[in-house]
Design goal:
Layout (H helix, E strand, L loop, with lengths): L1 E4 L4 E4 H18 L4 H11 L3 H24 L6 H27 L3 H33 L12 H4 L5 E3 L4 E3 L2 H17 L4 H10 L5 H25 L6 H21 L5 H24 L12
Antiparallel strand pairs: 1-2, 3-4
Helix pairs in contact: 1-2, 1-3, 1-10, 2-3, 3-9, 3-10, 4-7, 4-9, 5-11, 7-8, 7-9, 8-9
Length: 304
């Protein structure tokens, strides 16, 4: 089923794109990571230009996040106060990211920047996630118990002024910390088309010290609004959002998010994280190799 993408200016197999969306939805429901960190590179591998892939994937993550937020809201797993602060930071970060996107685009380096960011971030996250999963699986096999991590925010967070009480998360910290984290995620979302959850979830756990029960739902809540802002910003500035591509991805992702939430309750979480870590590292390796490929034709002549 060939479908023409007007902004990307190429024809694609619609079923393949729907399948990529379903994969994104599964990851969103299982881990609260939005899934855009895999959607964008997979679209690039498929032949979609990096700028269009990043802009369109952000809009698709919005749909996947809506479904996931409702699933976690029904069980009380969303801290709306914390999410609101992070959304405010995310919107500011989106505006900053738009300036950077235009700057790199004018320099002709935006495609390279997107690829390098993915290699660095995916490689780092994949290694950390894989190490943690292997330790947990080894402990299960040997019968030893992994020491429980104390839920405690980072010392730098404790020193920030103007503390607020975040009752749902069980925290009494400054809103400046989640605001800054939201800004970083907003910049990454604008540049890379990701939901930012694979950065946001660890930051919420290890820097803010949030309760694990509300991390995934709150992450998806922040991702929902930041990706909406990113889509609007891309539409107004870069004009790189391909609505046909985003719609095909959405068809698969909304269903996949519900299935992912169900799978997360049935599958061993340690093995699940190990599979995700392996997948992330494979994508990072493929993108790193792509940066070193020499094209068949170094120069090309395009009509003016």
């Amino acid at each position: 089923m060939d479908v023409y993408l007007p902004i990307a200016n190429l024809s694609v197999n619609g079923l393949v794109i729907v399948g990529l969306g379903a994969l994104t939805g599964l990851l969103s429901g299982m881990f609260g990571v939005g899934g855009g960190f895999l959607t964008t590179p997979l679209l690039i591998f498929y032949g979609v230009p990096p700028t269009v892939a990043a802009a369109s994937a952000a809009s698709q993550v919005t749909g996947a996040s809506v479904s996931g937020v409702f699933a976690h809201y029904r069980r009380g797993g969303v801290d709306f106060q914390m999410g609101g602060v992070m959304v405010a930071g995310g919107v500011i970060g989106t505006a900053m990211g738009a300036v950077l996107f235009r700057l790199f685009e004018e320099l002709g380096q935006i495609d390279t920047v997107i690829n390098v960011l993915y290699v660095v971030l995916l490689g780092s996250i994949g290694i950390l996630m894989g190490r943690e999963s292997i330790q947990a699986i080894t402990a299960e096999k040997t019968g030893t118990q992994v020491p429980a991590r104390k839920r405690r925010h980072h010392p730098l967070v404790a020193n920030l002024p103007m503390r607020w009480r975040f009752y749902r998360s069980g925290l009494y910290i400054s809103p400046l910390a989640p605001l800054f984290i939201g800004m970083v995620v907003g910049i990454l979302t604008m540049l890379m088309g990701i939901g930012g959850g694979f950065v946001l979830v660890p930051a919420m756990l290890y820097i803010l010290g949030m309760s694990a029960g509300v991390v995934v739902g709150t992450s998806l809540f922040q991702i929902l609004f930041v990706t909406m802002a990113t889509t609007m910003m891309h539409s107004l500035t870069t004009k790189a959002v391909d609505i046909v591509l985003a719609a095909l991805l959405l068809i698969g992702s909304v269903t996949g998010a519900q299935l992912g939430a169900q799978f997360a309750q049935k599958i061993n979480p340690s093995r699940l994280r190990l599979v995700l870590a392996a997948l992330v590292l494979l994508v990072a390796l493929r993108m790193a190799l792509g940066l070193g490929y020499r094209p068949d034709e170094i120069y090309s002549v395009a009509p003016l």
